[in-house]
Write a structure and sequence with these properties.
By secondary structure, the chain is an alpha+beta fold. The chain has one domain. The longest helix is centred in the last third of the chain and has 17 residues. The protein starts with 9 loop residues before the first helix and ends in a 5-residue tail after the last helix. It has a four-stranded antiparallel sheet, covered by helices on one side. A hairpin with a 2-residue loop joins strand 1 and strand 2. The protein has three helices and four strands.
Length: 97
């Protein structure tokens, strides 16, 4: 399981995307500005290995949007762990290059 200390702080996410992987599952956190809205959100994504975010079909990705602050990062980290536990067989069967 991933811990909150494993994730980057808000100041990092203001400028960069944070990506990582955990036993067959890849994840990404990023600042996401929705069209027509002034306040950015934290967009969290998970998808199966082995491919990058850009090379993975959209239907294989799952998303969560939450507040762009420390609480949102904590919620996103919890959600990533929940997705991992809920779909453990999916992550275990992925092929690795």
């Amino acid at each position: 399981m991933l811990q909150l200390k494993d994730f980057m702080p808000v100041n990092f996410l203001k400028k960069e995307k944070y990506t990582g992987s955990c036993k067959g599952m890849r994840f990404r956190m990023e600042k996401f500005e929705k069209e027509g809205e002034e306040t950015p959100v934290l967009r969290v994504s998970v998808w199966p290995e082995p491919y990058s975010f850009d090379c993975t079909p959209e239907e294989e990705k799952q998303f969560l949007e939450c507040t762009f602050d420390a609480d949102g990062i904590a919620k996103g980290a919890d959600w990533i762990n929940e997705r991992y536990e809920a779909e453990l067989p999916r992550w275990k069967k992925v092929s690795r290059l």
